[in-house]
């Protein structure tokens, strides 16, 4: 019997050693230590032994059982560790791989134009003003010397909410609102914002677009101040070599009124497709604030004078960046917008 036990032990230990996974080990455990296994059988046969032999054999069976159990446990630990190790190797991360690029957005070209213009005017001591996009007929037209029935209203048809409320057609109503609020005090503001027109959209027209209004009122503000200011604007937006030219024009809220051209930034003034061979590009309307406009807002037109201008933000952006269709600004096409990705600013 002792012989048999030793043999069983050898067999079990050899199988434990050979087992390559936890399932095989479990099979070995069931086969040798389980209720139907040979060691249990041997224990059951103890009754047949003489009383002197029994304790000796009992001790021997226990030792064998312990040995096999210990070996099993040791092997389980090893296999478990191996499994973890394998998993770790499978899941290992290659830290030398290049990372995935994070796509960053960039500022919209119109925002850039507006911010550049804001920076310039803030540096000249202007404040940034705002006004409502849903505006009163009074501020949009009447207070700007465009009474009801004035023919110049035809050029600025808009979306009416009621007879007296409309989507503003320009940022000029902010002039009237600011004057009213400042109650005769000097003013130096610019006002960027959305404006609306009843227009059919095409490459150069949009029913919604952006303007930047400027208004300066004070003692002895003259046409030459306007000219100097717009010259600085043209140089800032289109380059230091640019020059401006004023042409007589008409706006009901300014007298005299001018249309302002800048020398072509593409050809330098010799004539090209951008300036339609003229060497000049029209960029904005401006003028000296009409006395009626000053008086309606409570300013004494004998003591104070002022100038105003209105810039089309899209037009500046189209010229500056060579954009040929105004609709590109509104369609949110990433292929268009990503072209304005600049990091040097
Ligand atoms: N409000 C005018 C427009 O939308 C532009 C304009 C012209 C604004 C002359 C002014 C100005 O302030 O003085 O057509």
Automatic annotation (TrEMBL):
Cofactor binding remark: Binds 2 magnesium ions per tetramer.
Enzyme class: ligase
Residues noted as binding Mg(2+) in the record, renumbered to the chain: 255
Primary localization: cytoplasm
Record field: catalytic activity: tRNA(Phe) + L-phenylalanine + ATP = L-phenylalanyl-tRNA(Phe) + AMP + diphosphate + H(+)
Domain Aminoacyl-transfer RNA synthetases class-II family profile as annotated: residue spans: 111-319
Any one Pfam family match given in the protein's UniProt record, by short name: Phe_tRNA-synt_N
Domain of life: Bacteria
SUPFAM superfamilies: Class II aaRS and biotin synthetases, tRNA-binding arm
A molecular-function term among this protein's GO annotations: magnesium ion binding
Stated family: Belongs to the class-II aminoacyl-tRNA synthetase family. Phe-tRNA synthetase alpha subunit type 1 subfamily.
HAMAP family linked: Phe_tRNA_synth_alpha1
Protein name (Swiss-Prot/TrEMBL): Phenylalanine--tRNA ligase alpha subunit
């Amino acid at each position: 019997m002792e012989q048999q036990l030793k043999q069983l032990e050898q067999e079990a230990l050899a199988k434990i050693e050979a087992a390559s996974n936890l399932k095989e080990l479990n099979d070995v455990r069931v086969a040798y230590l389980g209720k139907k296994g040979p060691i249990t059988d041997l224990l059951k046969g103890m009754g047949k032994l003489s009383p002197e032999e029994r304790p000796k054999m009992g001790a021997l069976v226990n030792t064998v059982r312990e040995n096999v159990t210990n070996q099993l446990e040791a092997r389980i630990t090893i296999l478990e560790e191996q499994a973890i190790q394998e998993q770790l190797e499978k899941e290992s991360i290659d830290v030398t791989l290049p990372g995935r690029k994070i796509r960053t957005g960039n500022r919209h070209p119109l925002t850039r134009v507006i911010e550049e213009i804001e920076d310039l005017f803030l540096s000249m001591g202007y404040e940034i003003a705002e006004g409502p996009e849903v505006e009163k007929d009074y501020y949009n037209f009447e207070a700007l010397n465009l009474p009801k029935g004035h023919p110049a209203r035809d050029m600025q048809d808009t979306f009416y909410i009621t007879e007296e409320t409309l989507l503003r057609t320009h940022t000029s109503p902010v002039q009237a609102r600011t004057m009213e609020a400042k109650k005769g005090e000097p003013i130096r503001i610019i006002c960027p914002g959305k404006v609306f027109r009843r227009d059919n959209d095409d490459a150069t027209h949009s029913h919604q677009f952006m303007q930047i209004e400027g208004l300066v009122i004070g003692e002895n503000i003259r046409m030459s101040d306007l000219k100097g200011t717009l010259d600085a604007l043209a140089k800032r937006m289109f380059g230091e070599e640019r020059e401006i030219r004023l042409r007589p024009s008409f706006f009901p809220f300014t007298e005299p009124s001018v249309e302002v051209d800048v020398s072509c930034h593409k050809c330098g003034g010799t004539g090209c497709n951008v300036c339609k061979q003229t060497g000049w590009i029209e960029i904005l309307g401006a003028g000296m604030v009409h006395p009626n406009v000053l008086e309606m807002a409570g300013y004494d037109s004998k003591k104070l004078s002022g100038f105003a201008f209105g810039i089309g933000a899209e037009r500046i952006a189209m010229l500056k960046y060579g954009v040929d269709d105004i609709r590109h600004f509104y369609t949110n096409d990433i292929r268009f917008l990503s072209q304005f990705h600049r990091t040097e600013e």
